[in-house]
Description:
Number of strands: 3
Shape: elongated
Strand content: 25-35%
Radius of gyration: 13 Å
Number of helices: 2
Strand order of the largest sheet: 1-3-2
Amino acid sequence: MKAKATVKLKFPSARQLEMVLTSLKPETSTPSSHRARITLKKDDKLLVLTAEANDTVALRASLNAYLRWINSILKVLEVLEAP
Length: 83
């Protein structure tokens, strides 16, 4: 792997972090591309997303996809938790 990036996202609650991890687990176990690999780890209330790719284009595409998915999951949780 030639390109690598680590993103740390802080969550307001451990529950939200668990929901995001559970939702994204299938994506990390069977990657959609052989050009990039993503790992997700939990560190207290932080989600540590590490991306490794063969090139910067694949790295950017993978990061964008995961960050959009995380954002979508959080928006769904926000709607579900609204009174």
